[in-house]
């Protein structure tokens, strides 16, 4: 952490001072603890707070900690030339001109962890960790200003608006469950986890959507396999499940309606689908493993929640009758779940998984690269790419993506992608926050932290190390699909894993891999003559029959393979 602060100080020390500042006032009777985020945009098609992202067309942002980690709590916060920004690093770099400007104050809570550490983090409030629409966050209405570096009068903003609550709104899962036309098949549970409560030092809950098969009520003696569907936080059900016919050209709604028809008319094998909401103070998803910083979400889901769901909704409750699937974050989760709990699951269908080999940490090689942002030759250098289009065009660099997250939150508190990987994979630092795997300002990689990542969370390394034990337990269970034009270069790590598993013996791995030439994130495999959108639209219908066929084929003698086959 000292190195990061020193790098930031060195960066801002070289920035020339300018006269014009921004002064943001947050009316509050209580002390303020959190992160002020100021956003400049060139247009008002949407509010500036909705235009800040990691790609090069992003609006301009600046961030300031208030009342955190020893900093003073003040109601009027100044943003000046030394305030860290993205894409431009300083107010001094912004050309004079007209802009729309808006401020948001992301409110943090004090968490007294079970470990004895105290940290300040932004709690999820039912919105799935979105600072720009988190309930209760103060913000200002967008104002059009003329920014002039030579002006002495500061631009003043008053954050006198408050973002609305989720509870009781149409976006509240409990409201959706009560009033949805799909309620005959959908159930929602708000599940208190004792393990997570002990870790976070406060009551901590999981949300669980349970999709019941057709005929559930009419067949009270039937027991069902369980499919755990892994995904980012969503207020509703994954995969999409809607009784409302689509209007216009809404392909996503069309897929949800088609799945609803197939599910309720018996055209899909009868299983229970479980979708878990596990947003946390670091991200919209926990990665469902036992992490030093995020907490024991693997144990909470697998040891607490799943047994409760299977007991209440007549699950078979055995490893041979469980499978898991997901894409992107869910792709990594589903593969990690199968590897880390090999006896409790009987197959994973993992699409476009997050990095499964840290030689391919997106486009960064954590083991061989010295710096995550730039690769240097004897006479030249090249920035490390972050995001791309399928044709190879670069639309973000790794350095800018980390700068974007640094604006949103210091100490790994951005609640964005790089931050959650660090939170999940890193040991807990002496200050209670995740140990940085690399400096977010300079890009220098910490090889000691990388070694911890390798030993605990590099899935390829775990499979290589433990293959004599894991290999026999994973036969017939691994199915991975990824596009070779993946937006985040996730195909690189998948190819490395594929090559590694091809070389295995005793047993030789039968893992199945499918690559989509030129396909972006998130490719789900399927017939090659179909488009990516067509394959994604019926992914659940394609893989659930594969799951149940494998379950029946590998079920132990005397297992219930008939009661759910009505």
Strand and helix layout:
Elements: H1 2-13, E1 22-25, E2 34-41, E3 60-66, E4 76-79, E5 85-86, E6 97-107, E7 109-112, E8 118-121, E9 138-139, E10 143-147, E11 155-158, E12 161-162, H2 173-179, E13 186-192, H3 194-200, E14 205-211, E15 226-230, H4 251-264, E16 272-277, E17 290-291, E18 295-296, H5 297-312, E19 322-327, H6 329-340, E20 348-351, E21 374-376, E22 381-383, E23 385-388, E24 394-397, H7 398-408, H8 417-425, H9 447-457, H10 459-473, E25 478-483, H11 490-502, E26 512-516, H12 532-537, H13 539-554
Parallel strand pairs: 1-11, 15-16, 15-19, 19-20, 20-25, 25-26
Antiparallel strand pairs: 1-4, 2-3, 2-6, 3-5, 6-10, 7-8, 9-12, 13-14, 14-16, 17-18, 21-22, 23-24
Gist?
This protein is of the alpha/beta class. It has 13 helices and 26 strands.
Characterise this structure.
With 566 residues, this protein is α/β, with parallel strands linked by helices. The chain folds into two domains: 2-164, no CATH class; 173-360 and 458-554, 3-Layer(aba) Sandwich (Rossmann fold), CATH 3.40.50.1820. It is 26% helix and 21% strand. The strands form eight sheets. The chain has an eight-stranded mixed beta sheet with strand order 13-14-16-15-19-20-25-26, with helices on both faces. The chain has a five-stranded antiparallel beta sheet with strand order 5-3-2-6-10. The longest helix is centred in the middle third of the chain and has 16 residues, at 297-312. The chain starts with a helix and ends in a 12-residue tail after the last helix. This is Putative esterase. It comes from Granulicella rosea. Keywords: Signal. Residues 1-19 form the signal peptide.
């Amino acid at each position: 952490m000292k190195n990061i602060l020193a790098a930031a100080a060195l960066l801002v020390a070289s920035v020339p001072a300018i006269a014009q500042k921004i002064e943001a006032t947050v009316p509050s009777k209580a002390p303020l603890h959190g992160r002020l985020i100021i956003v400049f945009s060139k247009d008002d098609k949407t509010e500036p707070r909705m235009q800040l992202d990691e790609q090069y067309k992003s609006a301009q942002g600046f961030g300031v900690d208030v009342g955190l980690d020893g900093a003073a709590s003040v109601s009027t916060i100044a943003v000046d030339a030394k305030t860290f920004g993205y894409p431009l690093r300083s107010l001094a770099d912004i050309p004079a001109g007209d802009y729309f400007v808006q401020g948001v104050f992301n409110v943090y809570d004090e968490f007294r962890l079970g470990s004895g550490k105290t940290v300040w983090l932004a709690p999820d409030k039912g919105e799935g960790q979105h600072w720009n629409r988190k309930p209760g966050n103060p913000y200002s209405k967008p104002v059009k200003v003329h920014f002039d570096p030579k002006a002495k009068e500061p631009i003043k903003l008053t954050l006198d608006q408050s973002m609305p609550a989720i509870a009781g709104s149409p976006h509240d899962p409990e409201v959706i469950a009560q009033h949805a036309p799909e309620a005959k098949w959908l159930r929602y549970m708000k599940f208190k986890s004792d393990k997570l409560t002990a870790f976070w030092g406060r009551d901590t809950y999981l949300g669980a959507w349970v999709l019941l098969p057709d005929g559930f009520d009419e067949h009270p003696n039937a027991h069902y396999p369980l499919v755990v569907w892994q995904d980012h936080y969503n207020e509703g059900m994954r995969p999409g499940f809607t009784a409302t016919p689509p209007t216009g050209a809404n392909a996503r709604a069309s897929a949800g309606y088609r799945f609803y028809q197939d599910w309720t008319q018996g055209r899909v094998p009868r299983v229970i689908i479980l979708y878990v909401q596990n947003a946390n103070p670091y991200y919209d998803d926990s990665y469902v493993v036992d992490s030093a910083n995020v907490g024991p979400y693997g144990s909470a889901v697998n040891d607490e929640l799943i047994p409760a769901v299977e007991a209440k909704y007549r699950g078979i409750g055995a490893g041979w009758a469980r499978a898991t699937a997901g894409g992107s974050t869910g792709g990594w989760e589903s593969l990690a779940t199968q590897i880390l709990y090999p006896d409790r699951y009987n197959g994973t269908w993992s699409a476009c998984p997050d990095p499964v080999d840290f030689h391919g940490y997106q486009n960064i090689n954590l083991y061989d690269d010295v710096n995550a942002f730039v690769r240097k030759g004897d006479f030249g250098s090249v920035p490390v790419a972050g995001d791309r289009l399928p044709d190879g065009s670069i639309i973000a660099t790794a350095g800018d993506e980390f700068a974007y997250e640094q604006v949103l939150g210091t100490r790994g508190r951005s609640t964005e992608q790089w931050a959650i990987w660090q939170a999940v994979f890193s040991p807990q630092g002496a200050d209670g926050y995740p140990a940085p795997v690399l400096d977010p300002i300079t890009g220098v990689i910490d090889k000691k932290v990388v070694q911890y990542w390798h030993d605990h969370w590099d899935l390829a390394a775990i499979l290589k190390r433990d293959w004599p034990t894991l290999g026999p337990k994973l036969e017939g269970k691994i199915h991975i699909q990824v596009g070779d034009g993946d937006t985040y270069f996730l195909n690189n790590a998948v190819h490395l894993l594929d090559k590694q598993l091809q070389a295995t013996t005793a047993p030789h791995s039968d893992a199945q891999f499918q690559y989509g030439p030129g396909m972006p994130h998130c490719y789900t495999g399927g017939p090659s003559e179909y488009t990516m959108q067509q394959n994604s639209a019926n992914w659940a219908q394609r893989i659930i029959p594969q799951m149940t066929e494998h379950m029946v084929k590998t079920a132990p003698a005397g297992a219930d393979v008939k009661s759910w086959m009505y």
